Amino acid sequence: MTQIETTAPATELTKRLYRTMCLIRNFELAASRALASGELSGFLHLSIGQEAIAAGVCDVLTDKDYITTTHRGHGHCIAKGARIDRMMAEIFGRATGYCGGRSGSMHVADPARGILGANAIVGACIPIALGGAFAANVLGQTNVAVAFFGDGAVAEGTFHESLNLAALWRLPVVFVCENNLYAEMTPIDVHLSNKTVAAFADAYGIPGETIDGNDVLAVHDAAARAVDRARAGHGPSLLEFRTYRWRGHFEGDAQRYRSADEVAAWRERDPLRLLSAVTDQELTDELSRIAKDCEQEVERAVEWAKAQPQPEAGSLIEHVYTAGA
């Protein structure tokens, strides 16, 4: 895996990436607190510990580029530019949320930002990204599509079918595997035959790379190379980012399948702390201010979301069918 550089990175890039990671973490911590207090209901899947991947990848994308994501997709949507107040309103089931309060945590979408949607079905987001890339080719656009998925999705047929088709048609798509070492509760050495997910790229004749997913600068560099390659018409890439989720598969997961020592070891590799560690004192102070600003911004988003109206009962049948031609 690529290691953290010992030299300080460019100031503006550092601040931008740090801010994105802070927003994601504070958003998810706030959502977790709301669930624990009974203000939210249903399942909540958090990506705390994995923020560097969303921040690093989405930083090299434009508003016109597409992303598709999973049940653990808050971070990707935020990093792609989704408003955290409307994201929070959606989770709270409010009418002003991105999907009118209908999607909850696992199905947020904002096509205007290129967010084609989160998807609770494992592996289902991958061919959707393929469709976005195909559409860009047909329309003569330079848009790139990125599919985010976990290591568990690699066992799904959609993963292999999508890689094969993308390679055959040289589609502008980047496959991003967030390998957090567990498919729900199953460790990767039980469910994956290869030692790395990136190794599957060889079978389809496309580039594959394994990167330290907690090193946001390494993530950014790898994503930039893959996106540039796709945008230039050279076809797809498979990026495997090794990372770890600090929380369970879902909030309330008893986590009997892993040890406290394992979790503690990975918490030492906090992506926010790793980025801060390679900065000078002046920039470190600035990052502390950014962290405080993000915390306050999320607090305001929560209060705004709580104050929003519930959907009207009569709106239940809206958006079910398209208008007749």
From TrEMBL:
Task: State if RNA-binding is listed as a keyword.
Answer: no
Pinpoint the Dehydrogenase E1 component domain residues: 20-312
- Keywords assigned by UniProt, alphabetized: Oxidoreductase, Thiamine pyrophosphate
The record's annotation in Pfam families points to: E1_dh
* Needed cofactors: thiamine diphosphate
Q: Which domain of life is it from?
A: Bacteria
Mind telling me what this protein is named?
Thiamine pyrophosphate-dependent dehydrogenase E1 component subunit alpha
Q: Which Gene3D superfamilies match?
A: 3.40.50.970
